[in-house]
Design a protein that fits this description.
With 104 residues, the chain is α+β, with helices and mostly antiparallel strands. 34% of the residues lie in helices and 28% in strands.
Length: 104
């Protein structure tokens, strides 16, 4: 995630990611709303893009809640992506880098 946030800053993207925290009950992300929301929301104002991104390990599986978010986002016309493993991360970073920079 750190590499994606740094790449976003360098390539003109704005990004939001809420990190989970460890509690005595395991890892929790203190949010309200429906479970399974994507890991990151990324916008590129100059290109007019908004991506909802779910990061998974190479063989990681989406939960039912994550799949539903993906279907609903796609039905609403949003760009929803699942990034799997190192190859997926490299592809995402390449896609991010091909767009024009946005002055901050």
């Amino acid at each position: 995630m750190r590499a994606v946030v740094e790449a976003a800053r360098l390539t003109g993207w704005r990004i939001h990611h809420t990190r989970p925290g460890r509690t005595m009950h395991g890892w929790r992300t203190p949010l309200e709303g429906d479970k399974g929301f994507p890991d990151a929301v990324m916008i590129h104002p100059r290109a007019g893009l908004c991506w909802f991104v779910e990061f998974k390990a190479r063989y990681g599986r989406l939960s039912a809640d994550q799949e539903r978010w993906g279907r609903d986002l796609a039905a609403a016309g949003c760009d929803w992506r699942t990034v799997r493993g190192r190859a997926g991360l490299t592809a995402l970073l390449d896609d991010m880098a091909t767009l024009p920079r946005v002055a901050r």
